[in-house]
């Protein structure tokens, strides 16, 4: 039975990936999920998986070398899928240090532990072992020409402390591939949306604020463009790259779904009004009157857009969920999981919110 070590599996994409993998492979695989349970890690995301015999959760920090080596010593790991990271750009602007620690040092610790466990005495690597580093399109910087896209060959040009830390981690993975022929892949994906996303991010933040009648804080002129992908399509892409991709290669993942932020906010309002029953008390809160243009994010990248040509032509990957369908599914999920959101909002979240948005 193949054993996966997933880092950051209690977060947004990691938990969706674990759900996807068990749905696809059932009892054919075993997953060990290593997560430090930072503010972004939520065991509730995996509630329905907890009882499985082929699933293990280990609370550990990826920067803790001993803890990570211990996991490799005690388990014959075949695949690493490395999600764990500090992921929010706004937080990286106010507190960059933890981004460098987790994203850069944490990735190095993961690479070293896997290398130590997988390396043969002659410097080659045991058959079938693979490491996949999950990265972002933000490493490529910002597109100014409207006809331009991010290709795997686009030079790195990160701007935020978050994207700089992810770029650094990508380069370390690349260095291990180039220097040791360490068996890895890198994927660079565009903005994800879907269930279990922490409400510091645009889409769940706007849904949560609209339902509770709070302002919808749109940064700058609202015309920054992001390229949105339904999270399950990302999970599928990661699995395809690890199973069918050429080792040592980078694959961009994105579904050609560019939207201005203000368009997203308007779609959320329209969809909420469509889905909320007439007698739902939350309905009266929702409307465009909530939109508030606020001080822009520092160094705000203008446009991201992925060219997914390589993953499409080499591996046959294509997004299955179109945005109109995906955003409806996502909003429905948040409406049906009010308690999930409330548990977050009742924690430390409002302190974060007041600090981040208080004087914007
Ligand atoms: P997230 O913030 O929702 O989850 C991150 C997870 O990592 C959490 O469970 C957290 O507890 C864990 N974690 C953080 N620091 C840790 C540490 N030191 N040790 C162990 N666990 C730790 O993030 P996400 O949005 O799910 O992103 C996952 C990965 O995908 C990240 O590497 C991110 O850069 C990348 N990515 C995200 C997007 C997106 O749109 N969200 C797009 C492309 C790539
Ligand atoms: O592109 C991939 C990246 O997408 C990932 O690597 C990151 O981990 C992920 O957080 C995401 O980064 P963004 O900065 O694009 O996502 P965020 O949801 O924070 O913001 C999306 C856009 O919406 C961005 O242009 C900023 C804007 N925004 C965001 C928030 C939270 C607002 O206008 N108002 C807000 O309150």
Please tag this protein with its features.
7-stranded parallel beta sheet; alpha/beta; binds nicotinamide-adenine-dinucleotide; 360 residues; single chain; 11 helices; binds 2'deoxy-thymidine-5'-diphospho-alpha-D-glucose; Rossmann fold; 3-stranded mixed beta sheet; 16% strand
Would you give an account of this structure?
This protein is of the alpha/beta class and 360 residues long. The protein has a domain of 242 residues: NAD(P)-binding Rossmann-like Domain (Rossmann fold), CATH 3.40.50.720. The protein contains eleven helices and twelve strands. Helix 5 links the parallel strand 5 and strand 6. The site of nicotinamide-adenine-dinucleotide has 30 residues, from helix 1, helix 4, strand 5 and strand 7.
Low-confidence runs of at least 5 consecutive residues: none
Helix share, percent: 40-55%
Q: Compute the number of strand runs.
A: 12
Mean of residue pLDDT values: 97
Strand order of the largest sheet: 3-2-1-4-5-6-10
Strand content: 15-25%
CATH domain class name of the domain at 2-193 and 229-256 and 300-321: Alpha Beta
Distance between the termini: 52 Å
Hetero groups in this structure are:
nicotinamide-adenine-dinucleotide, 2'deoxy-thymidine-5'-diphospho-alpha-D-glucose
Contiguous helical run count: 11
Structural class: alpha/beta
Note the main sheet: 7 strands, parallel
CATH-defined topology of the domain at 2-193 and 229-256 and 300-321: Rossmann fold
Assembly type of the chains comes to: single chain
Question: Which architecture name of the domain at 2-193 and 229-256 and 300-321 does CATH use?
Answer: 3-Layer(aba) Sandwich
Shape: globular
Helix-strand pattern, N to C? EHEEHEHHEHEEHEEHEEHEHHH
CATH homolog superfamily of the domain at 2-193 and 229-256 and 300-321: NAD(P)-binding Rossmann-like Domain
């Amino acid at each position: 039975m193949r054993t996966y070590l997933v880092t950051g599996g209690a977060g947004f994409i990691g938990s969706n990936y674990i759900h996807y993998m068990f749905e696809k492979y059932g009892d054919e695989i075993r997953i060990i999920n290593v997560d430090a349970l930072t503010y972004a890690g939520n065991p509730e995301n995996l509630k329905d998986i907890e009882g499985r015999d082929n699933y293990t959760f280990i609370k550990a920090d990826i920067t803790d070398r001993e803890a990570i080596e211990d996991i490799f010593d005690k388990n014959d790991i075949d695949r690493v899928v490395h999600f764990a990271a500090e992921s929010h750009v706004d937080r990286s602007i106010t507190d960059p240090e933890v981004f460098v620690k987790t994203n850069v040092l944490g990735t190095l610790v993961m690479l070293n532990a896997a290398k130590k466990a997988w390396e043969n005495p002659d410097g080659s690597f045991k058959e079938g072992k693979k490491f996949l580093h999950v990265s972002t399109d933000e490493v490529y910087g910002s597109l100014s020409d409207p006809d331009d896209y991010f290709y795997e060959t686009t030079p790195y040009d990160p701007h935020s402390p978050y994207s700089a830390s992810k770029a650094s981690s990508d380069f370390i993975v690349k260095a291990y591939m180039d220097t040791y022929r360490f068996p890895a892949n890198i994927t660079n994906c565009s903005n994800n949306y879907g269930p279990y996303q922490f409400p510091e991010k645009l889409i769940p933040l706007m849904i949560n604020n609209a339902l509770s009648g709070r302002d919808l804080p749109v940064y700058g002129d609202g015309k920054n463009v992001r390229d949105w992908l339904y999270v399950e399509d990302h999970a599928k892409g990661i699995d395809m790259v690890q199973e069918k991709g050429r080792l040592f290669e980078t694959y961009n993942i994105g579904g050609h779904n560019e939207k201005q932020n203000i368009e997203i906010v308007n779609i959320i309002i329209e969809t909420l009004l469509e889905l909320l029953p007439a007698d739902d008390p939350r309905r009266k809160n929702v409307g465009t009157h909530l939109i508030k243009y606020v001080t822009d994010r520092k160094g705000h990248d203008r446009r991201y857009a992925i060219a997914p040509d390589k993953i499409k032509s080499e591996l046959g990957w294509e997004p299955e969920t179109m945005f109109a369908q995906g955003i409806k599914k996502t909003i429905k999920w948040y409406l049906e999981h009010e308690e999930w959101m409330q548990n977050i909002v009742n924690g430390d979240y409002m302190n974060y919110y007041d600090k981040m948005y208080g004087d914007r």
